[in-house]
Amino acid sequence: MTFYLCVHFFIYLFKLFALCRWDSDSTVGEFDGHSKRVLSCDFKPTRPFHIVTCGEDFLANFYEGPPFKFKHSIRDHSNFVNCIRYAPDGSKFITVSSDKKGLIYDGKTGEKIGELSTEGGHTGSIYAVSWNPDSKQVLTVSADKYAKVWDIFEDASGKLNRTLVCPGIGGVDDMLVGCLWQNDHLVIVSLGGTFNVFSASNPDQEPVTFAGHLKTVRSLVFFPQSSPRTILSTSYDGVIMRWILGVGFGGRLMRKNNTQIKCFAAVEEELVRKINRLPILLIKALRVACLFSFCHP
Prior knowledge:
The chain is mainly β.
């Protein structure tokens, strides 16, 4: 059995896309047709094999092979086409775009056969889409900070099933930019780097949340007397994370905008004076106090 690796590269002012044999690194075909950056690609998982791509030129392209060659362009979107995904059964594929639309195409011909309903649809750019294992539903995420589950019917029309709301404060970091439907898990990723995992069989249940630092971690402090025992970490961008020992991510505690945290330490006393004219912040972290020293950029 031959395995193929479908790869797209983001390079300013250029587009690069390649299909490589997994076992030899040799390319299999030519992929012309885009005039701007390719943003997403996918491989039809059933015979006859096809490749689909999409990008910043508002196009989705359809390729036949192997060896793969350009067949035709799809010009149905009016803005960036951000993501393209084949259904697991190969019968159809879907594109989502910054024009807030999700369009569905025949998997063998690339002809448009349906679309997601505008009723209850996204009000911002749709950044990602993922099919469920039986090819009858899709998950979409958007700049409007919502994730939506859609039922895909035999006529390829899509009707809203439910809207998922991820925890957050409604800021730019809460925009949703990635998603994956993996078995019973609906994995949703925000711009701020937070992963929210919903259960497909029980979507009303609170999601499991994971996150981490996006910048260099500058300091750690351990609270051995707390219950549960907790570690706080701070990074170069001023983000403070709480970690529960033996569990992992426990939440984002605070953020000091436009301020870098130089270091911090656990202290026993509640009253702390400024030292050497450095700006100092004392907060209560659990049942003990935590001392922060800030340096301004």
